[in-house]
Amino acid sequence: MAGPDVIAPGEGELILNLEGFEGPLDLLLALAERPNRALSRGQLAELLHEPADEVGRAIDIRIVRLRKKLRQPQTNEPTILAVRGQGYQLCISIVLS
Predict the structure, then answer these.
(1) Burial call 65-90: b when 16+ CB within 10 Å, e when fewer
(2) Does the pLDDT value for residue 42 go beyond 50?
(3) Which strand (E) or helix (H) includes residue 95?
């Protein structure tokens, strides 16, 4: 089931209500500002102002939480891809409301 912040899933896009959004918004914005581009853990940590030595699995855990938040059960399409050897890539458009 989609989270309460997802207003309307569309073909290849989600409309999100940011008021009261209870998710890793900084991570979502970092990915959304760089569409169709894979970002490594290090790049994401830098964009999120996280200490580089503590990155490791912390980014992975935040990605898992964001994927759950953005899940589109009616289409079952992935929202965030893990690109082997490169990082994570947002593969849908986000429309903020």
Answers:
(1) ebeebbbbeeeeeebbeeeeeebbbb
(2) yes
(3) strand 93-96
